[in-house]
Amino acid sequence: ACARPGAPSGVDRRPLARRRRRDQARATAVTLAAQPELPWTLDRLAQRVHASPFHLARSFQREMGASIHQYLLRARLARAAAEVLDSGEELTAIALRLGFANPSHFTAAFRAAYGLTPTALRRQAGASRMPGA
């Protein structure tokens, strides 16, 4: 057993550390999904869940199957898709509010994720809502 100094003999602390890191990764995922528009940094996220940036990045990748950056991008794109479909807001405004560097970066990421541009998605949704379509 891998007991820390001062721990009762025979107590393995590794399962507790794994559980804590898993919980930190999941809390980070919830945070990112709830507020994808914020300018998150690894340091800020690590402080929020009381982890080192290094351990958070590793445990997040292991637990969520994606890097923090990839997960945040997916969360932003999911929010963007909902807003493209549910609002009449200009696409540039949606892109910038959700943290994309510029509209072309937003369009390229959106197309890579969903196979069509935000404009095409909005156009298709509008056509399907028209009577007789």
Can you describe what's shown?
This protein is mainly α and 133 residues long. The chain is 68% helix and 0% strand. The protein contains seven helices and no strands. The protein has helices at residues 14-34, 42-48, 53-64, 68-86, 91-97, 103-114, 118-129. It is elongated, with a radius of gyration of 20 Å. The model has no long low-confidence stretch (mean pLDDT 90).
Stretches where pLDDT is under 50 for at least 5 consecutive residues are none
In whole angstroms, the N-to-C terminal distance is 67 Å
Main β-sheet description: none
Mean pLDDT: 90
- Identify the overall geometry: elongated
Order of SSEs: HHHHHHH
Number of helices: 7
Q: What class do helices, strands and sheet pairing give?
A: mainly alpha
Q: Helix amount, in percent?
A: 55-70%
Count of strand segments: 0
Q: Please state roughly what percent of the residues sit in beta strands, choosing from under 5%, 5-15%, 15-25%, 25-35%, 35-45% or over 45%.
A: under 5%
**Radius of gyration, in angstroms, nearest whole number:** 20 Å
